[in-house]
Amino acid sequence: MNFLKRYYDKVILLTLFVFFVGLMLSVLSKVEETSEIKAEDLKLPPRQADHNCVVPESDDFKIKEMWEKSAMVWKSAAKGDHVETASDLIKAEKLAACPYCSENEGAGKVLIPFSSFGGKCPNERCGKELPAPAADQQTLLITAGDSDGDGISNDDEKKYGLNPENPDDATTDIDGDGFSNRYEIAQKTAPNNSSDHPPLWHRLRVVDIRTVELPIKLQVVNTNNVSDKSKWDIQYNLPRTRRGKVRITSNFVVLGDEIQVDENDKRLYRIVDVRHVENATTAKTAATESKNDGNASNVGKFEVILKEVLDPDSKHQPDVIKMVTGETVHSSDLRPIFQDTGRPGSANIIRRLGSDIEINRLVGAQNTSLSRYSRKYSEKYRVISADVRTKHVILGKINGVVEDESKLETVEITPEGKVTVADAVSETKENAGNTPDEE
User: In the 8-state DSSP scheme, what is residue 395?
Assistant: First the structure.
């Protein structure tokens, strides 16, 4: 211990010297190892590409083949002409508006596959036969007086500022009144003057004539075993909305009572008659089997007649409704549906008998000077009658206040358009020599 106390400073120096020598030896060792590294050891290995090169002409770039091999193809249904685009998720399809699907006035269009035309509408609520699409072709008969063969003479085309060498201007509407240039010239009106045009009802076509399906349904008629109809109990069901929910309510009435047939229709109908719809033999047999007094049977179907309650001063014909036990009820109040060909793409016009149709003259003129007009000219017509079988509708032209509908100037609209004077005269001549049996 005395030695360390005396020479501790030298011991520390010796320790540091030994550590320094060891550190130098370590550095020399590393220098020797470094001198043994060759140039090849410093070369980095080549990097592998993270993608595979493909040839653009290979099958991997053929969309149809790729789609067929994928899991997206709809295997459970026939794909028809759209094999390259049909799948469980999407189906590219050309669509068109069904002319029959709008249930209410002002309803939006119902789009269906264009391929459905010529068959039945796929809409379950419609299912009607659709017309086949017209061929988009124009027959041109080129003559010396009609260079482009569009049906308008060269003289008329020059007179109204049209091009005698362009057949497409025959179907345009330069004055914006909803009639093509060719139609106006054929009708002896000026195609470049919006104030000179055929009657606007010429633009109308009858799409359909419908009866309105009513929510009311006749359930039971209890005769109480008496023949006096005033003592018969009539039960009917009618959906009613309460707090946002629709509930079917049962109602009991008797002959002479007034009821609503639709909660959204405020019109009242009076029960004017109720009777068996079966023949007397069936009713008598039913009465015997039920062991009543034989005056009236509760068995079988009944028919209840409802008549619209109108104001005494009303000039409209009252709507008459027939309800048969368990069957759907339709109103006799017809709803003609019109298309305005002067406004392509516009919604169909739905009107009830006795209501008015207003047709605007200006529908978006191609002439820039006409497009500045802010005022729209119109003509008004009243729906007088409709024939469900022939789909013909009679309109009456309204000028001012209507005092008597029978004095209105009437016109007839068909699915093909107006009935011309020539057609009416021809039909009269054909029927003049026919007896009822021959017809």
Answer: E
